[in-house]
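Predict structure. Input: Endonuclease V, 232 residues.
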Amino acid sequence: MIETDMSKLTKEFSDIQAELLPKVKLENTFKKDEIKLIAGVDLAYWEEHGKTFGTCCIIVIDYHSKEVIENVYSYGEITVPYIAGFLAFRELPLIMKAVEKLTVEPDLYMFDGNGYLHYRHMGIATHASFFLHKPTIGVAKSYLRIKEVDFQMPENQAGAYTNIVIDSEIYGRALRTTKNVKPIFVSCGNWIDLDTSTEMVMSCVNKESRLPIPVRLADLETHRVRKQLAHK
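Output follows.
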């Protein structure tokens, strides 16, 4: 029965992703000087009394000054089971719950996760864009291996990158944001091109982390909030 339900969910989720994919545009739908506020989004999970709970943290920064403008989070029980490749369905409810708490409107969202660099080009950054109605970028700390294709290591200098090419299509980039530090994996979410995504990520990196500031701060906040909530 459980296997049947999972199979049904997988088919349902796959159909939704297939329906959304033709609407993905890997090109800028904005002018760069219009980007003033960037949001970083991350989630964390924990188990309690046999149930799975999660928190979504969103940190909004001023793109130019890099100052934190707003910090919100949501939390709740996770009711959608984990199915590889369909993480968005599990995370979207908490993401949108956190977005509703924002008093400012981000011009762009960066996700701690993938976008176009996904089995069906529908990672969380891409999928969520259709609910956020804003350009999105995927920033992953680890590489999602697709069709047995490995990435090529970029040169050891800040800003160096190699394209991740699968079946003659560019899925994303392995980007070294800091010298002597392992790369991160950047991909378009939606309504933005890969060069601009790379530029935006690099412009938000400082000496404290290989991750862009909004994503790093959201990641740190999820650990803080999880620790706080898991002990209630």
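Residues 29-230 form a domain with the archaeoglobus fulgidus dsm 4304 fold fold (CATH 3.30.2170.10).
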